[in-house]
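Hi everyone, sorry if this is the wrong subforum. Our group has a chain we'd like a structural model of before ordering constructs, and none of us has done structure prediction before. Sequence below.
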Amino acid sequence: MSKYLQEAIKKRKEFIITRLVQLHADEDSHPDTHDLNRLTLTELEDKYAYITRRKEDTEENPH
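Answer:
Right subforum, don't worry. Here is the predicted structure as tokens:
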């Protein structure tokens, strides 16, 4: 894998992990960043999509 691609994946993972930590902070919970670092980029993107979708649903339909 090229160094460029490796660096792009690393930066994308860092961005998603940062956003996940911020989203969890909004909910007063704290994810284990060590566990997040062990996930693949695809797993992180899936987790991020799930959490943001759930957050949007909650904001649209607060019960």
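For your construct planning: The two ends are 47 Å apart (CA to CA). The helical segments are 3-26, 33-37, 41-60.
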